[in-house]
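If you are new to this repository, start here. Below is one unmodified record pulled from the training split, so you can see the exact layout before writing a loader.
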Amino acid sequence: MAFLHDSIREVLPDLSDVAKDMLVETLLALGVETYSDLQYITEADLLSALRPIQARKAVAAWKVKCQDTTQDSNSSFSIQEGASSLPSVSPGPSSSSRSLSPISTSSSASRSPDVDWADTFDIPWKKFPEELIQSLERGKRPSPQKRREMVRIVVREMMQKSSDISKRHSTIVAKKIVATYPKSLQDVIEGDIIGSGYHSLVKQLQNRIENAKRSTTPKSRKRKLHAESDTDEIPAEKRAPIQDTYGCIKWEMKFMPLGETAESQQQSRDKLKSLSKQNAPNQDVVKQLTRSTFYIQRKEVNNGKEIKYLLEDWPFLFDEIGMAVHFEELTGVSLKETFVRNLDLKGERLLNYLKTVAVNKSKRLVQSFTNIQLMRREHTGPSGDLLEMVLLLLSYFDEKEDVMFTYVEDTCLAEEVQMDQVPLTPTIVVCGQSCFSAKRWMLSVDRMIVQPSITSFIPALCLMFGSFYVFNIHYPVVLASTLEFLQRCFFSINPERGTKVENTSKSRLHVNPRVLTLIQDLSDHEWCS
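And here is the target side for that same chain:
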């Protein structure tokens, strides 16, 4: 309903898009169908979507606007006749709320009988501690302790409304809270919103609800509730397409680009193969040809062409230049540029958190940190902090380093790598005893060395990560959290739903909860560089 968006924009021009959408949903749930219906809205009706002052502004403005429209309209008689039966209304917002609330409620019930309690749930702002309100109003992130206290208060109010609270209810409530104070509560790292921005609050609400129910719910019922609220299952036959297209904006092109023919695509393919044999091909030409043949590249990848075939016919797909072009067309993200920018913004904060906070919570992480420090003393080189960050991330999530890295002798050639010991998924082959001592890297995909000589770690990591998307490869379960964290925080690919993780019995359709926990802890982590 366009008139609702216009009417909101007129009275609250600075309202965020998320808050506007929520207000529209609230008004529709109340039964608003025409502009004149807005004159019957009260402050109390809007408190589930707006702050009190915002609600008062909107109600006052709509009443004046509707009165002006009524006086000027030729059809005003019928509206005035309907309004004459209503109780008299004084200008003040509190009296407006008292006099019209019963009528608004009955209108809502008659027009929208299926309205859920969560849609009209009032966030108990007045019950929040003063310190928390001060943080929220000033746009500051509340301390973890105050955030947990907020969650306890909200859940207590929710459970008074219903004893059967689903994940959908928690999502609606979390969305309202975050929309009201996005600067303080959104899932964000250095300005980048992670997923929808409110998944970590949904998770906290769900966990609190489960804890509150634990003492009163029979065990069989508890397991059922946990399964319904914590995961969303999809049929097995539908998982592959979801995982293949996850994070992509142009996964499959239905039509060949204008001006292109099958012959011109083949000619460009042949030119690229010829350029790949040159020692220093013109990079601009390679980029242009790779971009112009994106259509046929996607067709062949999506039709399941083997890596061996793709390496022969599209050698630049496995090169830093060609993969960057294809990845950007596919996802809308600049592969290396995005990673480097986010590394500058977030890398130091993440490494500091892992080394000073997370390390005190895990014996495993302590051991990994100690080993890494020993290796760094023996071998100091470029990208040391990045290597340490990735290795500590793997340890933090308790995931398999040997699935991301395979180690060979520093003089080892591509044909000498024992491929039966290398994972099928994209893997960085380290030429050296450790990541810190290596001067050369290789990339393996489908147990084939597709890039035999990479001179630094950043392009090696970008090529490895990009391969999952370019070649429709799913994240292995044993690297799922590490790869999703890198995906969201460093490569800026933030789908709200879906998964890139290979087939499992239960495939999560939202942000990985372990990744959410780290994101939330990082958001709360304050430090001075």
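Two things worth knowing about this chain: The first helix runs from residue 2 to 11. The chain has a mean pLDDT of 81.
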